[in-house]
Amino acid sequence: MAAAAGAAATAAAAAAAAAPRSPGAPTAAARARRLPPLLVLLAAAAAGPGAGGAARLYRAGEDAVWVLDSGSVRGATANSSAAWLVQFYSSWCGHCIGYAPTWRALARDVRDWAAAIRVAALDCAEEENHEVCRAYDIHFYPSFRYFKAFTKDFTTGENFKGPDRELQTVRRTMIDFLQNHTDTDRPPACPPLGPIPPSDVLSLLDNRDGRYVAILFENNSSYVGREVILDLLPYENIVVKRVLDADEAFLEKLGVSSLPSCYLIYPNGTRGLMNIGKPLRSFFSSYLKSLPDVRKKLISLPEKPNKEENPEVVIWREFDRSKLYTADLESGLHYLLRVELATHRSLAGAELQTLKDFVTVLAKISGIFLINRIKWVGCQGSRPEFRGYTCSLWKLFHTLTVQAGTHPEALDGTGFEDDPQAVLQTIRRYIHTFFGCKECSEHFEEMAKESMDSVKTSDQAILWLWKKHNLVNNRLAGHLSEDPKFPKVPWPSPDLCPACHEEIKGLHSWNEGQVLLFLKQHYGSDNLVDTYAADQEDAHEGGAPPEGGEQERGLVSPEKPQGEQRAKSLRPPSVLPPRPDLSQGLQLGLDGGHQSVSRAEGHREVEVAVPFLGMGFSSLDMSLCVVLYVASSLFLMLMYFFFRVRSKRWKVRYHRLSV
C-alpha cells in the first residue's frame, strides 16, 4: 500500500509541477477558498478508506452462495476441510450484475458438493472489503479464485482457467480442481473421482456389503460420472464408481449398448442396467437418490457466515436532469482513486505514466474536489447496485473532453496541447489499465481501436465519446445491469434537446451540430451545480424514485418551480477555477501529508472543513494546532534551560564540599 501511495504522490507531484499560473491570479485567501484539493489529497487517496456503501448481489441465507467478507474469507479458506471457489466481484460492475444469476444457479446446482468444494462470493465494492481485496491482489471484476483444502499458509488462490464462464464450464473446472488435489490434501469428504479399471468391475458384481453400487460407464471426455459421484456425496447406503473405455464384449455381456449408462448392483446381490429416460447427469442422480434406504447423511458443515444486514436507508435526492452535479463527479473521483487505484500495490513504467497523465488532465481541467464519501445525485439508481459509479465515470469523461475543447489553454505546458486526441487517449489508457470491469474495458478498447484515430479536432473528440456512450447504452439495453427506472435510451432525449433530433424520410437522425452545442452547454462550467456537494447541506431529501425515464432522468419537485431548484454553480460562469502556485496553499510530501485548504461554501462567507486523510479540519482547528505546537516548543525550551541551570549549580556545590 505504501508503494501505491508513493505512486499516487509521484503522479500528484508531476501534475503539481505542471499546474498553470494565471498572471492575474486572485489573492491568497481567494485562492485558498477556490483551490480544488485534488492534488493535495491524491497521495492520501490510496490510504483513505472513504465511505459509501454497496448493494450486495448475493444474500446470506437466501442464496446457496457462501457470502464472505473481510472478517470471514481468510478463516473460511485457510486450512479448510473443503476446497473453495470464490468470486471477487463489485456490485457496481455491469458484468458482475449480469453474471449473478449464473453464479446463484451454479451454487444451487452443486449444493450437494459443499463437503468437498464450496461456491462463495465477496463484494469488493463494500468499504469494509477494500483492504482484503487488495490483499488478494484483485484488480478486475469479476475475478475467480480456487483455494485448495488444508492450505495453511496465506495464498491469493489459483485463477480460474476455463475457456468461458458458463455454468457447465465452471462446474467442470471445479471437478478438475478437485482432482488436482493429492491424496494427502484431498477433502476427506470427497470420494475418489478417478475411474476404476474394468477388471475391478467383476469384484463389484459380487457386492454383499448392504449398499447399492452404481457403475457408470462413459467415454474419456465425459464428466457425467464424476458429477454423479459428487451429487451423491452427502447420501449414504450407495457407492458410485465410473469406468472408462470398457471392452465392447464386456459391455455387451452387461447389456450396455450406449454411453453413458449406469449398471446398478442392489444390496441383495441382484443387478441390472438402469432404465432412465435420458442419459443425463440429472436423470442418473435423481434416480439413485430415490432408491429405497438411500438417504442424506448427517454431515456437519461449518455454519455459513450470516452477518446481520442492516441496509442503510437511501434517501432519494431530487435533481434536475438538465444539470450536471458536482456531487456525482466528486463521488466518482473518490471511488476511482481510493478504491480502484488502491487495488494496485505498486505502479511503475507504463502504469505509472498512465496515472500521471490522467491526474494531470484531472488537475488541469476538471475543477472538482476529492471527497471522502459517496453521494449520488444525478447518478442515483432505483436500487443501490444500479448506475452510481459507472454513470459518474461517463459524466466525468464527457466533462473532460468538453473542458479540453472549450479551454485548450488549460493543457499548455503539459505535452497534451495541440493534440485533439490527448484527453481521449488518456481516458482510454486509464480504462484499459485501471478500470475494474475487465469486460467493459475490453469493449471500450475495441471501440477505440476501431475509430479513435479518426479524431482530428476537439469537437470530434467530444462527439466521438458521445457516439460511443450511446453505442454502449444500446448494447446494454435490456441487460440485467439496466436500471428499470432509468432505461438506456439514446441521449440526449428529445425533451432535453429538441434541436438534436430530426427525421429524414421518416427515420430518426441526429443533428450533430446541435448535439455538439448541447454537450458543450451540458458539461460546461456554467451547468455545474454544487447542490448536494460534500461541503453543503442537503437541500432536498425525501421523496421516491421516479417511475420511469431515460438515462439521465431526474425529478422536479411538484411544490417548487423548476427554476428555483437550480443551485448556482460555485465556479466562475465562463472560466475554469484558477490554478495558483501550489506552494502557497499547501505542502505535499511523498508520505501523503499536507496542510489543510479551505473552500468557500455557496454564497455564504463561511469557512468549512475539507477532507484531510479521511477527516475534516477547519482553519480554526489548524490554527489551534499551530498555537499548541508553538506553546509546547516554548515549554520544552524553558524546561531545558531550567534543568541546565540547576545542573550547573549542583556541580558548583558538590565541588566546594569536596574541597
Commentary on this structure:
By secondary structure, this protein is α/β, with parallel strands linked by helices. 39% of the residues lie in helices and 12% in strands. The protein has 21 helices and 19 strands. The strands form seven sheets. It has a five-stranded mixed β-sheet. It has a four-stranded mixed β-sheet with strand order 8-6-9-10. A hairpin with a 2-residue loop joins strand 13 and strand 14. The N and C termini lie far apart (65 Å). 40% of the residues are buried. Residues 9-54 and 537-616 have low confidence and may be disordered.
Write the layout of secondary structure elements.
Blueprint: H1 2-17, H2 28-34, H3 38-45, E1 66-68, H4 73-77, E2 83-89, H5 94-109, E3 117-123, H6 130-135, E4 143-147, E5 158-159, H7 167-179, H8 201-205, E6 212-218, H9 224-231, E7 235-236, E8 238-244, H10 248-254, E9 261-265, E10 271-273, H11 281-289, E11 295-296, E12 324-325, H12 326-340, H13 349-365, H14 389-406, H15 422-434, H16 438-451, H17 458-476, E13 501-504, E14 507-510, H18 512-522, E15 528-529, H19 562-565, H20 582-585, E16 599-601, E17 604-608, E18 610-612, E19 615-617, H21 619-658
Parallel strand pairs: 1-3, 2-3, 6-8, 12-15
Antiparallel strand pairs: 2-4, 4-5, 6-9, 7-11, 9-10, 13-14, 16-17, 18-19
Helix pairs in contact: 1-3, 1-13, 5-7, 9-11, 12-14, 13-15, 14-17, 15-16, 17-18
